[in-house]
Specification:
Number of strands: 13
Structural class: alpha+beta
Radius of gyration: 20 Å
Distance between the termini: 9 Å
Shape: globular
Order of helices and strands: EEEHHHEEHEEEEEEEE
Strand content: 25-35%
Helix content: 10-25%
Length: 215
């Protein structure tokens, strides 16, 4: 299934399902078959398997002509999910990205990943403008695959990790590789180091694709 979030001219967002060339409103579709679903994709993700079962029934009903949708070209899609509880990322996740930055290849089996976070205020949808901050002229992009967690847990064994993944979305991790915030001030050790907070957390620095594709 392909979950989407539609946005109306007044900014109202609604959870939907892309079924062939149609977009089906999930709350309305669920009601049409005697079920219930919330109005946002984030809430649906939080419900886990229960919501997935209902959404699958809506998809089946739409293909059978029992639930109506609208043409995909008649609606505007934003980020597939606009209000996740957290956004975690891994730095240097791709060997090719490490090497294109001028660094040598690493033995990833012998090093720890470097996680960082972005706030939900950084989220934008496909086609939305990326805002270039006035204190940086070194914007960079990194295409990623975001794993959307649908089942909560802690200290999860590696063998069980995918059981907690509801689906995937395309993600653009935007970075300001250098900042001018120290100009005119006394330098301190580390000022030249890439700032993981300010360089990653700007508005519009987390572009999420229009489809959340279930695993």
């Amino acid at each position: 299934m392909r979950f989407v979030t539609t946005v109306s001219s007044d900014g109202t967002q609604r959870a939907g399902l892309a079924v062939d060339d149609q977009i089906v409103d999930l709350e309305e579709g669920a009601a049409a078959i005697g079920g219930t679903l919330p109005t946002t994709v984030s809430e649906i993700v939080g419900m886990g398997d229960e919501a997935i079962v209902v959404a699958k029934s809506v998809e089946d009903a739409a293909r059978e002509g029992k639930v109506e949708g609208v043409s995909a070209g008649s609606v505007t899609l934003t980020a597939a999910t606009t209000a996740p509880l957290s956004i975690f990322l891994l730095a240097g996740n791709y060997q090719s990205h490490i090497m294109e930055s001028g660094a040598a290849a690493v033995n990833k089996s012998k090093i720890n990943p470097r996680p960082f976070m972005k706030p939900t205020t950084a989220i934008i949808g496909t086609g939305d403008p990326i805002r270039i901050p006035p204190d940086s002229d070194t914007l960079d992009y990194e295409i990623e695959i975001a794993a959307v967690i649908g089942k909560p847990g802690r200290h999860i064994p590696e063998a069980e990790a995918l059981d907690h993944v509801l689906g995937y979305a395309v993600f653009n991790d935007v970075s300001a590789r250098s900042l001018k915030i120290a100009e005119g001030r006394d330098e301190r050790a580390g000022d030249g180091f890439f700032d993981w907070l300010l360089g990653k957390w700007c508005d519009s620095f987390a572009a999420i694709g229009p489809y959340l594709v279930t695993r």
